Amino acid sequence: MKKEKIKRLKDAGWKTGTVQEFLELTDAENALIEVRVALFEAFQKIRKEQRLTQKQAAKLLKTSQSRISKMETGDPSVTLDLMIRSLVTLGANKKDFVRIFK
Amino acid sequence: MKKEKIKRLKDAGWKTGTVQEFLELTDAENALIEVRVALFEAFQKIRKEQRLTQKQAAKLLKTSQSRISKMETGDPSVTLDLMIRSLVTLGANKKDFVRIFK
DNA sequence: TTAGTATATGTCAGATCTGATATAGTGTCA
DNA sequence: TGACACTATATCAGATCTGACATATACTAA
Predict the structure, then answer these.
(1) B75 φ, ψ to 5°?
(2) N or C: which end of chain B has fewer CB within 10 A?
(3) Partner residue facing B81 (CB), from A38, A80, A92
(4) What's the whole-model pTM score?
């Protein structure tokens, strides 16, 4: 119940505190969501900067268009592992993660 | 063959370029390793700052001492997911990850 | 309207991860 | 020396993830 709501709310511009209180998240749960959101937003940004469709990105990353879509919509079946591996494959380095989390 | 070597080499103070060339890593593989190293070093640092033994940390994180050890030694069976979830459970927030990757 | 392109959603078998357990190694103290 | 605390390593059943596929939805152009 929690997870599906979160992205929509964040995207709708709700303040963190408000979302956290509304969904009764612990600090750790909230931090984890912020990290996830930062990563999937970064991924979509990079893909679009490189003018790739999800299908093209899928080929590069040796996965399927559907998983790319799930990554960008914050689907709970997508792990931080997959997002980070995808980001570095598209060219992100350690330094870029500083910006991603800033 | 690659993965086991990496931590030791990095810990021994080798420069990134050198390790990367020696192990014939792609940029993406190298970036991923740098991210992993940053995370498991950060985890150990936080655990020690909080004066927790691996056993105590394991209880907090609802896992086992052996997995904590694997996390800190960069065992390949440990995912970025687990490391990031553990870090936020010990109190790290998005902002802390800026420092971790800097 | 239809066709074409891009993205989103549902499902699942096979791959990978994880907590748990056992055990080994290391350091310290008496 | 032995006992104890801490950490490292090996193994594996059950849990979770992932690529692939099917299908749906959204948008554009003719």
Answers:
(1) -55, 135
(2) N
(3) A80
(4) 0.86
Query: Whole-number Å distance, CA A25 to C1' C7?
Result: 30
Q: Is the CB of A50 under 7 A from strand C?
A: no
Strand C: which nucleotides have any atom within 7 A of a protein Cβ? 5-12, 17-22
CA proximity to A30, closest of A47, A22, A71: A22
pLDDT of A19: 66
Q: Which two tokens stand for residue A3?
A: 């997870």
Instruction: Please list, residue by residue across A32-49, b when 16 or more beta carbons sit within 10 angstroms of its beta carbon and e when fewer do.
Output: bbbbbbbbbebbbebbee
pLDDT tens string B18-31 = 667 776 678 899 99
**Shortest Cα–Cα distance, A89 to chain B (Å):** 5
Domains of chain A with bracketed CATH: 2-101 (1.10.260.40)
Contact B97, A101 (CB under 8 A): yes
Q: Which residue ranges in chain B fall short of pLDDT 50?
A: 1
Whether nucleic acid strand C comes within 7 Å of the CB of A34, the answer is no
For residues A34-43, average pLDDT: 95
